[in-house]
Amino acid sequence: MKSKRYFNTTGFCMPERHYMVDPLRNQKIIFDLIEKTQYFTIHAPRQTGKTTLLHELAHRLNKEGNYISVVFSVESAGYRSITEETANLKIINSLYESCELFISKELWPKKSLADEKCSLQTYLNNWAGSQKKPIVLLLDEIDSLYDDVLVSVLRQLRNGFQGRPKHFPSTIALVGLRDVREYKTKVRPSEVSLGSGSPFNIKAESILLGTWTKEEIAELYSQHTKDTGQIFSKKVIDRIYELTGGQPWLVNAVANEIVEKILKSDYTKKITLAHAEEAKENLIARRDTHLDSLLDKLKEPRVKNIVSAIINGDSLVYDNFNDDLRYVIDLGIIRKEKYDIIFSNEIYREIIPRVLNFSMQENIREEGMTSCYIKPDAKLDMDKLLKAFQKFYRRNSEHWMERFDYKEAGHGLLLMAFLQRVINGGGRIDREMAVGRGRTDLTIEFAGETFVLELKLKRDSDSKEDGLDQISRYLDTLGMTKGYLILFEIKPSSIIPWETRVKWENVSHQNKKITVVEM
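Given the sequence above, the corresponding structure tokens read:
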């Protein structure tokens, strides 16, 4: 039978149409803050369920009958050239129009007239004063506002704060991609603080919406099983958790890809691990809107610093390290795991390097033909492949790196682009990258064989020895004895000429056979 509900990948979730995990299940803190008439922020990366949570919260509060609650977006005022006066009017109109979705007509605020000069503070003041119940206002997309408009809105909310709950909303939640402290940077990057009159000091709490646990993914998928009889096994759920890191949009997108696209909504078919892998590849190849908006962030200098460091395995030492790190974590691109700073999940780990080196991949022509590196027994000739890359790198790297956005990580990205072109013909690359590791580890699987490559920048005379120790330890964890250490010289060829920097050497180190490939 055809299921009435489905896995949602666009917009917020509705219980009657979509499989969904109750967004308020762990949010006692929100109800406590509302009871205490506090203001707070909710922040989370795109498509992690913020708007779903807000709608559920407003509907629940209105149904219980103790509060008047409305969700509205300020995005209509989110462009640079807007005046504060026009922004106020747009925000007031957005609030008025949203009331229809949440509350009955007699509870609405008065409609604002186009020629009426009314501040947001006065409008909210008049509305609260005309109601018997306290108002809970859920203000979405707060970080779409710019500069003076953002400051103006926050100041008006702070100024009205003391009049709550009789003459101003009892609780206001500011909702966006980032925490309020991030708005300070956005508004006045050159100043540490906006002073004691700062509009940012009224919030009692900052709530970060987390990713889902394996149990929550299992709960979501069990709803599909209940509707259709089609089962997501524990093995499949564990693998989807690894691929997505519990990121809600990805969890839904992988399931939707398997159920609707790959299995064509035939619920009699068994869902396998191979389907999960196929779904991952399809999502990466298709780059849906969610992935595109994530990748758009890679152009920002603050994001670039952190992402380059992860790809190179560099340590991070510069003034804004903590702020930048928090910002990129808040965007959902990276996460901290024990001592490591890594990409948030396997899909991001795969797609970010592929997107960054996409133009390189497209420009690799005959050298990137898979057939050139296949032995008669259909196995991959890794020595031949890496020798071809050495030649290619010598010919193209300086010219290409000059035009490349991610120069710092360019050496490794160029090798990954070259490998991707070849390996796509029948194998897969797994990347292990983290800040401060001093290297990037690649595991390549092709025709039943596994190859281990370690990429390292040659920063000093110890780099080679360090690299040999590192790849030996990595091979130990994999239970293997053979690998390749790829060393990239970072000094220009005017200082160290190509004749002396391109080397190929087979060494024995800590009972391992390691081929050292320098360039």
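Residues 353-518 form one domain. Try to locate this feature in the token string yourself.
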